[in-house]
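Q: Predict the assembly, please.
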Amino acid sequence: EAGVVQSPRYKIIEKKQPVAFWCNPISGHNTLYWYRQNLGQGPELLIRYENEEAVDDSQLPKDRFSAERLKGVDSTLKIQPAELGDSAVYLCASSYPSGSTNEQFFGPGTRLTVL
Amino acid sequence: KNQVEQSPQSLIILEGKNCTLQCNYTVSPFSNLRWYKQDTGRGPVSLTIMTFSENTKSNGRYTATLDADTKQSSLHITASQLSDSASYICVVRAYYGGSQGNLIFGKGTKLSVKP
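A: Predicted assembly structure:
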């Protein structure tokens, strides 16, 4: 079974430029998460989708970040414009929606460097 | 404030030795606690998930313990191997009156196993 797929794996941009990350979750997983992980820190949730609905986007900096999950499968996270402090690893995860112990499966992440 | 604290921040051990990683949390009300392993450049991978009623859970050479009264957990690694070199992240989920809270991640313990 294929895992969570993310692309690109690495991205280097100059500040004020736009950037987009793509995620393909595990087949059948209705719930999709985007996390940001700074160096030496644990992941922090940005947004959670149940199918195509964003059910928790309280931690998403909406002035510059946006996300979409058309058709409830693939998802795209966008930053426009990027700032120096956005340099981090952006992780996508997916899971089945029900149950308190539902396991989240993480992708390899996209490492973003903003110069 | 819901927090997850891990110690030590980093650890170096010799191959074949055992080690124990610690996790203290203030998340309330508690739902479950997970330990993840994150290899460099990869996404986290779940090792164990424990609910309130579980005191210990094993996954091969990994054994996690949970004391819900003192809000402490440990991850014991037996007969360490070079491939155990990774960051180990403690993650706690809260439960809010019928709905599951988001995962709260610790900063991780970086383990290096030397030959």
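Chain B touches chain A through 22 residues (CB under 8 Å). The mean pLDDT of chain B is 93.
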